[in-house]
């Protein structure tokens, strides 16, 4: 497995599978990861389509809640360091401990109140950015029990 794929998958696991809904905890975790990150945009709370943005070496990290109860954490990896898509998907399967479905998407419920949806895609060509997107659905406690 490509070294970048493993590093990126671990970053996504640590940063995007956790406390995306708590900005303070999200930023504190980002500081402990060791990748230099500078916040370049703060979402306007009045505009649900805006996301917070951090610039990282060779990537951008986006986070926010565009739909009530659904949080987004996305990593846009620049072409210079983006691994092959099959390597990235393999690394993501390793950290999620799940295989993607027939649409190459991961769905899993890590707790009674959270369901995660993960996608990884990259356009063809050497100048294509890779997008890894995680959606975290907040579930009512009773829904998590039924799944």
Descriptive notes:
The chain has a seven-stranded antiparallel β-sheet. It has one domain (3-146). The termini are far apart. With 147 residues, the protein is of the alpha+beta class. The chain has four helices and seven strands, in the order H-H-E-E-E-E-H-E-E-E-H. A hairpin with a 2-residue loop joins strand 3 (59-67) and strand 4.
Mean pLDDT: 89
Overall morphology = globular
Helix content: 25-40%
How many distinct helices? 4
Computed over alpha carbons, the radius of gyration is 15 Å
Sheet-strand content, in percent, reads: 25-35%
Question: Termini separation (Å)?
Answer: 33 Å
Low-pLDDT runs: none
Strand arrangement within the widest β-sheet reads 1-2-3-4-7-6-5
Structural class: alpha+beta
SSE ordering: HHEEEEHEEEH
* Overall domain count: 1
Short description, anyone?
By secondary structure, the protein is an alpha+beta fold. It has helices at residues 3-16, 23-33, 85-96, 141-146, and strands at 38-41, 52-56, 59-67, 70-77, 105-111, 114-122, 130-138. It has four helices and seven strands.
């Amino acid at each position: 497995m490509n070294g970048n794929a493993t590093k990126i998958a671990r970053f996504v696991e640590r940063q995007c599978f956790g406390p995306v809904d708590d900005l303070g905890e999200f930023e504190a975790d980002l500081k402990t990861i060791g990748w230099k990150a500078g916040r370049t945009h703060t979402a306007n709370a009045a505009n649900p389509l805006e996301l917070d943005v951090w610039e990282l070496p060779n990537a951008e990290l986006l986070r926010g809640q565009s739909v009530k109860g659904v949080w987004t954490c996305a990593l846009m990896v620049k072409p210079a360091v983006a691994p092959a898509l099959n390597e990235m998907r393999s690394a993501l399967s390793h950290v999620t401990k799940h295989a993607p479905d027939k649409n190459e998407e991961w769905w899993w419920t890590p707790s009674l109140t959270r369901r995660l949806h993960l996608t990884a895609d990259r356009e063809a060509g050497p100048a294509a950015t890779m997008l890894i997107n995680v959606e975290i659905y907040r579930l009512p406690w009773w829904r998590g029990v039924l799944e």
